Amino acid sequence: MRLSALLALASKVTLPRDYRYGMSRPGSLADKRKNPPGTRRRRVAVEPVSDEEWHLFCGDRVEVLEGKDAGKQGKVVQVIRQRNWVVLEGLNTHYRYVGKTVDSRGTMIPSEAPLLHRQVKLVDPVDRKPTDVEWRFTEAGERVRVSTRSGRIIPKPEFPRADGIVPETWTDGPKDTSVEDALERTYVPRLKTLEEEVMEAMGIQETRRHKKVYWACRSSRSRRWALSTSLRSPSMLFTVSPSPRDMNRERWPWSHEREGGDGPVQRPLCCQPP
C-alpha cells in the first residue's frame, strides 16, 4: 500500500453547506470556478439513495435506457454519488471548444455528460441484456449483486484508480510501505516545540540567552500599556508613547497642577542595562 494512498484516505475536504457537486473533483481549479467563495447557489434536489441500495460502480457494463444513445452499452468511468450520476465512456457526449483565444477558436473535443442512475441498467452476463439486480448474501457471508432474471452473480469490477493502481491486484514491492508500518504509532507527544525537537535530534546545543529588558514606568496604567506593546514586538527598542490623558497633561501642565498633581508625566522608556 502506497503512503500517498494512505494520506488520501486520511484527508478530508471541508465543504460549505450550500456546495453544489459537479463533474470536477472538489478542491480543483475547475471546481473553484464553478463554486467561487462567497457565493450562494440554489440547492439541487437529489433523490435519496442509501449506500445499501446503490449498485453501480466504476467499470460496470451498463445499457442506456433514455436519451439519444438509448439501447447502447458502455462502461462506467465515473460515479458521482452526491448527485446520483454515472458517466459512460464515449456515450451521451456533446462537443465543446477548449483553448479558445482571440485569434483561434480552439479545439473541439467530445465530452461525456452524466446520466442518472435510473437511466441505465446493469447488463446481465448471461444474455447481455439489461436487468434489475438485488443484493444478496452468499453461503460464505459475502454481499454480492444478483440478477433478478437469471440469478447470475454480477461481481464488482476491478477498476483502476486515478494513479493507475488496481487495489485488488496490487502487490507490495520492496520500496512500498506496509500497512502495519504505516499504521504503527511512533510519535510521542511532548511539550517541546518543533524547533526544540529538531535541535535535540540533531544534537544542536543552544547557548544563547535572551537579554534582560527593564521598563521604567510611573503609573500602573502606563506599565500595562507598555507591557501589551512589548508583546507585539519584544525585540524592538522604542520609546513608549504615553496615554492620551498623559499627553494632555504634558501639553497643559497647569490643568494637571489644578487637579493637585506634581507636574507633567514623564514618558516611560524601554532600555537595556549598559
TrEMBL record:
Domain KOW: 55-82
Compartmental location: Mitochondrion
Ranges of Basic and acidic residues composition bias in the record: 246-261
Keywords, sorted A to Z: Mitochondrion, Ribonucleoprotein, Ribosomal protein, Transit peptide
Region annotated Disordered, chain positions: 24-44, 241-274
Keyword Ribosomal protein: yes
Signal peptide: none
GO molecular function, one term: RNA binding
GO BP: any one term: translation
GO CC annotation: mitochondrion; organelle membrane; ribonucleoprotein complex; ribosome
The keyword Iron-sulfur appears for this protein: no
Family classification: Belongs to the universal ribosomal protein uL24 family.
Name this polypeptide is given: Large ribosomal subunit protein uL24m
Organism: Lynx canadensis
Taxonomic placement: Eukaryota, Metazoa, Chordata, Craniata, Vertebrata
Gene field: MRPL24
